[in-house]
Amino acid sequence: MKTLSIDIRKAEPRDAAAIADVHHEAWQGAYAGIIPHRALTSMISRRGTQWWANAIRRAATVLVIEIGGVIAGYATLGRNRARELPQQGEIYELYLRPEYQGIGLGTRLFAAAREKLVTHGLKGLVVWALEENSNALGFYAGAGGRDIAEGVEVFDQKALRKVAFVWD
């Protein structure tokens, strides 16, 4: 029997291609049928290997979860962008390859991202999720998030409601 190690670490430029692949697979899985096809395809294609390499080099905080040397997911995080909410930290994105979902890896990555925000001195956390993304809503509610605000994102003239979950 082989034991696989699970590591969560800060992304490095060499991870860019793998993160781009995770982004593509996860966004297709999460948003196909929710975000209009043309808008979704365009958003995914803009975030290729070079985009991720630049984001990592620019000191964006990107964490990866790696299983046996394979990048299974990523999270991006930093300061809360919604000035009307008092929480200081925000997880902008948290995605796993579809085959790694539902086995606790998202919970581990979420906990590591929260800890990283605390080490940056940011108190409280906000995460936004599209209202039609029932998997995300269930995940953040199950992680103890309180649904406290709503907003709207527009994709190819289709307005989609989003929900803010917070942790103090």
Pick out its properties:
7-stranded mixed β-sheet; alpha+beta; Aminopeptidase
Average the pLDDT over all residues and give the rounded result. Answer: 95
The poorly predicted ranges are none
Shape: globular
Element-level helix/strand string: EHHHEEEHEHEE
Q: From the 3D coordinates, which CATH architecture would you assign?
A: 3-Layer(aba) Sandwich
Major β-sheet profile: 7 strands, mixed
| CATH homologous superfamily label | Gcn5-related N-acetyltransferase (GNAT)
Annotation, overall tally of beta strands: 7
Number of helices: 5
Distance between the termini: 42 Å
Given helix and strand content, the structural type is: alpha+beta
Descriptive overview:
It is a single chain. The chain has a single domain, classed as 3-Layer(aba) Sandwich (Aminopeptidase). Helices cover 35% and strands 33% of the residues. It is built from five helices and seven strands; from the N terminus they run E-H-H-H-E-E-E-H-E-H-E-E. Strands 1-2-3-4-5-7-6 form a seven-stranded mixed β-sheet, sandwiched between helices. Helix 4 links the parallel strand 4 and strand 5. The model has no long low-confidence stretch (mean pLDDT 95).
